[in-house]
Amino acid sequence: MRHRSPVIEAAVIAVATLFAFTLQAANLPGIRVLATGGTIAGAQASATDYSYKSGAHDVNSLLSAVPNLDKLAVITGEQVANIGSQDMNDGVWLKLARRVNAALAEPGTDGVLITHGTDTLEETSYFLTLVTSSTKPVVMVGSMRPATAISADGPGNIYNGVAVVTNPGAKGKGTLVVLNDEIHYARNVVKTNTTTVQTFVSINRGPAGVVNTGKIQWFEPMDRKVGPATGFSIDALDKLPRVDVIYAHANMSADLIDAAIRNGAKGLVIAGVGDGNMTTPALDALTKAAKDGIVVVRSTRLPSGIVLRNNEVNDDEKGFVASGELNPAKSRVLLQLALTQTKDPVRIQRMFYEY
Q1: What CA–CA distance (Å, rounded) separates 93 from 77?
Q2: C-alpha to C-alpha distance for 172 and 107, rounded to whole angstroms
Q3: Distance CA 135, CA 142 (A)
Q4: Residue partners of 310: CB distance under 8 A and separation at least 6
Q5: For 3-28, what is each residue's pLDDT tens digit?
Q6: How far is CA 105 from CA 225, 302, 303, 307, in A?
Q7: How large is the average pLDDT for residues 280-290?
Q8: Are 187 and 330 in contact (CB under 8 A)?
Q9: According to the model, what pLDDT value does residue 5 have?
């Protein structure tokens, strides 16, 4: 019986391993990871420091810190931005949305995962859920602890995020947010705590599902328009209309309302008291603004509940829009996109009902 030489034996094993890997890869979905910085890519000077620098690590460093990702998908990474999400702006939104749409249009890409800071994650995710031109899955993840922290939560969130974006049930749900073993619809989720890992909550409706070690349980479906169904397009946009959020409080004056309009605001969102209410001077100033063509949306500074149309304030008479379930930050996002199509408060109110 002839025996192979050790060199030939090693070569045969290498070829067999490569073939097995190629076969496995051929059966796995292709996922593009778009990184934008944030705490998930942050680094401390030492593990005991409370402070840290956002966006210290690039996308390849983030992915290499997560075991067994290659068993879930064939993953390619791309650095779209590298900022703390407190510095997220309209320009980065448009750039990110274009990269998402371009990646999803590629035949070999089955979904997109986005790493993002948590401070404005709820706004970015809602923006993307309204402008993504594909029904392929899009999932956003972040972390509350930097990558260098003891018990960093980023790697687990990335692993579960990849598991969700490769799951058939994620298709057509718009942008999903995955943190701390929960799955949320972008429209519903809000950040509720400054530092704890259990911070993202869908207050009015509850999560879209749960995910633990990559195993997924879906709950209620989304009943609002997302993705291509919204009809929004960013293809011809180089900027978004300016919309300011103004916080209502006791003794609120009209000064900030007037200043926002003078500085170019095309729409105003009021983070109102109670059911979207405000002082008489502020209400008078907003009534005049609406008559002058500024779109006014009444939201609430409260963490939960629905701002009902014509409740306390006569929206029909004043030409206002009621935000419904959307908080001020989400209302601003929708109003910015609505203003790319119309200034008619009746049409915009319909969007707040449908989106």
Answers
A1: 18
A2: 17
A3: 22
A4: 316, 322
A5: 555 555 544 444 433 433 444 566 89
A6: 20, 39, 37, 38
A7: 98
A8: yes
A9: 59
Q: What angle do CA 320, 325, 330 make, to 5 degrees?
A: 80
C-alpha angle 325/138/52, rounded to 5°? Answer: 85
- pLDDT reading at 337 higher than 80: yes
What's residue 315's pLDDT? 98
Q: What is the pTM of this model?
A: 0.91
CA 166 – CA 68 distance, rounded (Å)? 14
Which regions of the chain does DSSP assign to beta strands (E)?
30-37, 74-83, 111-115, 138-141, 175-179, 182-185, 190-191, 200-201, 209-212, 215-218, 243-247, 267-272, 295-300, 321-322
C-alpha to C-alpha distance for 82 and 21, rounded to whole angstroms: 32
Query: Domains of the chain by range and CATH?
Result: 28-229 (3.40.50.1170), 242-354 (3.40.50.40)
CA-CA distance, 135 to 227, in Å (whole number)? Answer: 6
- The region, left, alpha or beta by phi > 0 then psi within -120 to 50, assigned to residue 224 is beta
Whether the predicted pLDDT of 1 surpasses 70: no
pLDDT of residue 115: 98
Coil vs helix vs strand at 245: strand
- Tokens encoding 180: 């701390």
Q: Which of 319, 275, 283, 322 is nearest to 301 (CA)?
A: 275
Active site residues: 39
